[in-house]
Q: What sequence folds into this?
């Protein structure tokens, strides 16, 4: 997305993800960088997509509808209209929450840990023990508690992250208190980042200007350079501008419970990352940074931007016990080209919008998803359904 091409040190969200995410439904016209903290003080809140206990993504900017291709190879030709897409987040009643939204807090060795993303069983190490995990329902003013198995994550210190088994699946729980490492070496050791955090996809910047997206063939040399900077000090307060070149790597890690956050290296010798919910900054020096820049330039190939998520917009035309159909005819240059997309309701994150929020047949909706579109126009990985409104030649999703 344009407008928010590079965020400040407390953002560290690569906008290339967002631009690629909405290529089938939008290109940004403008944007903001307001940051919010999650709260349960009200039943309905307007906030950006949640990225951690302290860092949230900015509200998506206004979007225009271009030609594009949905994941799965479906080409769409939409009218030249504008979408204003502001995600509304509801504090859901207990029965409409996922298990990790219900049980959010663990106390381990005197430290509070908070629930996060699912983690694959292949990343799970030895069991630490059985502990109580708790959650709170603001609608009934009731605390819920259950005993769950807590595990180490392979290669990760339990001081920062653990895995909790909830309803048969594992979820990363991250330490809630702010306790940054003293230096880069401590971070590398606590999380064995060279094994748990692949550095593959990156976007190059010159100041706030994008200079393309690339894919690295091998990240081993970069980790060698970073290990040679083990004494690089943690920077507590950093107020430098974002001028100069930088490489913004996609930070996705099953073991760390991280999905498309940012690990960024700047030419003036700093690492900035938000993979641990707080902005961590380390000073590695200009020489080490230049070694990484040179290696990345010589050992990468141009690639398409990597989407954070995808979206499609259309009229909700059918609701069954198993699925809904969303038809995008209203957006097409030729309405006869419209496609009814099928979204299954087995994920509570979609079903709750129908049952609790009251989205119904005839509503214009925006579906966000992280998967692909399979045979039969089945949308995989749908995680959000928002009501929209068509006014003039634009679609808006209200707060």
A:
């Amino acid at each position: 997305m344009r407008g928010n091409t590079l965020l400040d040190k407390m953002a560290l969200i690569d906008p290339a993800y967002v631009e690629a995410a909405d290529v089938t439904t939008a290109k940004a016209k403008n944007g903001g960088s307001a940051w919010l903290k999650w709260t349960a003080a009200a039943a309905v809140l307007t906030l950006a997509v949640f990225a951690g206990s302290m860092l949230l993504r900015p509200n998506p900017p206004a979007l225009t509808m271009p030609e594009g291709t949905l994941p799965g190879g479906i080409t769409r030709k939409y009218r030249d209209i504008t979408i204003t897409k502001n995600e509304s987040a509801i504090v859901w009643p207990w029965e409409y929450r996922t298990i990790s939204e219900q049980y959010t807090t663990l106390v381990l060795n005197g430290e509070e840990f908070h629930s996060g993303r699912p983690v694959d069983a292949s990343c799970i190490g030895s069991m630490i023990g059985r502990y109580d995990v708790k959650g709170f329902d603001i609608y009934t003013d009731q605390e819920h508690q259950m005993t769950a198995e807590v595990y180490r994550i392979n290669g990760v210190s339990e001081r920062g992250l653990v895995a909790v088994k909830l309803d048969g699946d594992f979820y990363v729980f991250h330490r809630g208190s702010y306790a940054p490492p003293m230096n880069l070496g401590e971070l590398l050791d606590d999380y064995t980042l060279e094994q748990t955090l692949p550095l593959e996809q990156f976007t190059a910047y010159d100041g706030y200007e994008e200079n393309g997206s690339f894919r690295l063939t091998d990240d081993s040399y970069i980790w060698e350079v970073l290990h040679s900077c083990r004494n690089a000090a943690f920077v507590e307060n950093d107020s430098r501008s974002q001028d100069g070149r930088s490489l913004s790597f996609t930070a996705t890690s099953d073991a760390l419970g991280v999905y498309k956050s940012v690990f960024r290296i700047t030419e003036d010798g700093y690492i900035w990352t938000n993979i641990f919910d707080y902005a961590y900054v380390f000073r590695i020096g200009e020489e080490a940074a230049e070694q990484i820049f040179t290696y990345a330039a010589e050992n990468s190939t141009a690639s398409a931007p990597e989407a954070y998520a995808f979206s499609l917009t259309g009229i909700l035309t059918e609701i069954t016990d198993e699925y809904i159909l969303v038809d995008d005819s209203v957006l097409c240059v030729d309405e006869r080209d419209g496609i009814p997309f099928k979204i299954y309701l087995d994920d509570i994150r979609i079903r709750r919008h129908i049952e609790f929020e009251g989205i119904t047949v005839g509503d214009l909706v925006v579906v966000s998803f992280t998967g692909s579109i399979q045979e039969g126009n089945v949308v995989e990985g749908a995680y959000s359904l928002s009501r929209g409104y068509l006014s003039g030649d634009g679609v808006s999703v209200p707060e």
